[in-house]
Each structure stands twice: as structure tokens, then as C-alpha cells.
Amino acid sequence: MNNREIIEEIYKLYEQKMFYIAFSILKDESAAEDAVQDAFIKLINNISRIKNPDSDRTKAYIITTIKNTTIDLYRKRKRDLELFDDNCLDDVTYHTDNGSSDIDIKNLIIQEELNKLPYKYKEIILLHIEKKLSVQDIAKIQGISYNAARKRYERGIKALRKNVLSAINSQKTKIL
């Protein structure tokens, strides 16, 4: 059996099981599909470890791969969601003439404050959140150490949070 046939067999045998595992952790169909796709990429990259797609050993390896991939995705999504403490944003009520929603205005404030950050912080935040690059990959791209990239990201997020909260509080006073 060649590598392509092995992958096809794995897909036939395990795709639904992998989706079920991912969905049971993430509770989101789209995210579960992403997790399965990421897991298959990992499996393809490590295809040499798989000799018989229908063996118990292969099944255990695939289950471990999808669980770990899904948990990694869950943690990443959680970190991205924790970027801003939504509790501080929820109590803000905006009244606009053009009918913009609260979420649109919150996103606008975040975008405005992100654009005010120094370039070295803004760039790393955008690469991490929008391009979904790891801090380690960003460090390589920028030609800096992992620790320097991580510190820039942390400082940028800290400054962004502070600026967004300040802008929101300023908006609250304007409303009141």
C-alpha cells in the first residue's frame, strides 16, 4: 500500500470518528472541521509511522492526534477570545444615528486602537490573530528570537487592552 492509499483508507475509516471527537470538544461544526483538517495534515506529515490503517495501533495514533490537535485549537481560540475581557465591553451601550450595532462599534474601537500601536507591536498582533501564525513562526519571519517576539506580542496586547478600555470609558462618558 502506498502513502496515498494509506491516507485514503484512513480518511474512509476515521474521518467521521475524528469529526465526532473534535466536535465533542469544540462544540462548533466549523472548528471541528478545521481540527480534522489540521489533524490530517499532521497524519500526512507522519505517514511513515502508519503501516496498516486498520490496526489498533493506527487507531490509537489517530485518536491521539485528533485529540491533541483539537485541544491545541481550543486553547488557541480561547487565547484569542481572551484578548479582550468581554465583560468590560458588554456593559457599554451605544446610541448611534446610523443604526450601527454595538459589536460594530466595539470592533471599530479595537481597530482604531490597534492602528495607533507602534508598528512592531501592531504587526506581530496582526500576524498572530489574522494570519493565525504562531509566535515562533512570526519570530522566524521577522528575524528575531522567540522570546523577543513573545515579549512584543505580550506588550502589544497589554497596550491594546489599556487603550481599548480607555477609549470605551471615554465613549461611556460621552454617552452619559
Describe what this molecule looks like in 3D.
With 176 residues, the protein is mostly helical. Helices cover 77% and strands 0% of the residues. The longest helix has 30 residues, at 146-175. Residues 84-98 have low confidence and may be disordered.
Mean pLDDT: 82
Rg (C-alpha, Å): 21 Å
Q: Low-confidence segments, ≥5 residues, pLDDT <50?
A: 84-98
Compute the number of helices.
8
Outline of the structure:
The protein has 176 residues and is mainly α. It is built from eight helices and no strands.
How does the SSE layout of this entry go?
Blueprint: H1 3-26, H2 29-45, H3 56-81, H4 86-90, H5 102-116, H6 119-129, H7 135-142, H8 146-175
Helix pairs in contact: 1-2, 1-3, 2-3, 5-8, 6-8, 7-8
Using brief descriptors, characterize the structure shown.
176 residues, 8 helices, elongated, mainly alpha
